Amino acid sequence: MQMRTRLIKSIPNMFTLGNLFCGFLSIGFAASGQYSNAAILILIGMMLDSMDGRLARMLNADGELGKELDSLADVVTFGVAPSFLIYYTYFFQFGILGMAIAGLFPLFGAYRLARFNISTTKSSGKYFTGVPITAAGGILALLTLFGDLIPQIVTTVIFTAFCFLMVSKIKIPSFKDVPLPKYGTIVTLFLGASLFIVYKGTYAQYPYLIYIAIPLYIAFLAYRFVRVRGKNRRETD
């Protein structure tokens, strides 16, 4: 029984480690010139990140280990991996200067995460202070994924803006009162469905994981939506 309890409580951490591994794989794909694969893996990491915290609360497995692990995974998947991707697709032409500029993104992101972790007001759940690194990294991955349709100057401006928006004092709604997983859910769901449609039939070129992760994520969203609505209905009866 004790072994079973430990196994259940480790499930959220497995999702967090999966998120971290997606970040590592994304860096590898970017270094080998497979930029679409790299971007897709960041987006899959975004899906996993939106699930681990909810699973921890559902399974009563909240803990300091999970929180610290989540922050470390976020720095890699949504900080380091997008900065590598941006460098290899846009900033490489500026040489060492481009690498230095790309490196600013994980620095600002790490600072933002550290500030969030020690914040005494984060328990309000109404808003985030500054743009979350998950949203910023996911949007950069999306920009590079469809980079042929977007001028480089636009990506550069958005990259620079996110660096400062992450450490700004701007209040960003958290949407935690919406009966779905945390920020970025609707965007991620729409993006996941779009990616499945766009890359369906190109199994040899893109990670097989995308065809597993997206249906599982949609199923998780449906479960969360039905569960929360059922709970709210019982409370009002």
UniProtKB/TrEMBL annotation:
It is found in: Endomembrane system. Its EC number is 2.7.8.8. It is an enzyme of class 2 (transferase). The chain crosses the membrane at residues 90-113, 125-143, 149-168, 180-199, 205-226. It catalyses: a CDP-1,2-diacyl-sn-glycerol + L-serine = a 1,2-diacyl-sn-glycero-3-phospho-L-serine + CMP + H(+). Keywords: Lipid biosynthesis, Lipid metabolism, Membrane, Phospholipid biosynthesis, Phospholipid metabolism, Transferase, Transmembrane, Transmembrane helix. It holds the Pfam family CDP-OH_P_transf. Gene3D superfamilies: 1.20.120.1760. It is a multi-pass membrane protein. NCBIfam families: pssA. Belongs to the CDP-alcohol phosphatidyltransferase class-I family. This is CDP-diacylglycerol--serine O-phosphatidyltransferase.
